[in-house]
Amino acid sequence: MSHGTKPAPAAGTAGKEHAMRIACWERDFRLWHYTFSYSQLLLRSAPRNDEDTRIDVLFSNVCHMSVPARLAGLTIEEDVPEGGLPEGAVAEPGFPYREFRLNGGLARVYATRCQWHEDHAWLDAPSHFGPLRGVK
């Protein structure tokens, strides 16, 4: 499942002792799909050549996000949300929400889980994470 770098304390996280770098890729990613009914966010990096891999990153139970359509490289840091969730975010009771900072805080996703999968499938092949409504 995990093909990013080894977890390490995130750089530039003074006062955020819990922040942990969980993945890092020097590849472009696109916001590929958001499923409202299941609150799932899928980011995808296309293979750069025939020998390269496709990478899908899935955030589950998303209650708040601020993510650009394209990301030049992707670093994901995981932490407990300081001060709770952002104003206006509505969380399902009983879910352990985490703050996922992308690229040093350029983007943020508040979700219960982040996982990724790397394979040799073509860009439009179905995701490893199963059928996502409206996504090949």
Topology:
Elements lengths: L7 E2 L10 E16 L4 E6 L8 E7 L3 E3 L3 E10 L18 E5 L4 E5 L1 E7 L17
Describe this structure in words.
Strand 2 (20-35) and strand 3 (40-45) form a beta hairpin. This protein has strands at residues 8-9, 20-35, 40-45, 54-60, 64-66, 70-79, 98-102, 107-111, 113-119. It is built from no helices and 9 strands. It is globular. It is mainly β. Strands 1, 2, 3, 4, 5, 6, 7, 8 and 9 form a 9-stranded antiparallel sheet that branches.
Question: Which structural traits does this protein have?
Answer:
single chain; mainly beta; globular; disordered N terminus
By secondary-structure content and strand pairing, the structural class works out as mainly beta
Low-confidence stretches: 1-15
Largest pleated sheet: 9 strands, antiparallel
List the helices and strands in order.
EEEEEEEEE
- The overall average pLDDT, rounded, is 86
The rough form would be described as globular
In whole angstroms, the N-to-C terminal distance is 20 Å
- Annotation field: number of helices: 0
Helix content: under 10%
Strand content: 35-45%
Count of DSSP strands: 9
Radius of gyration: 15 Å
Short description:
By secondary structure, the chain is mostly beta strands.
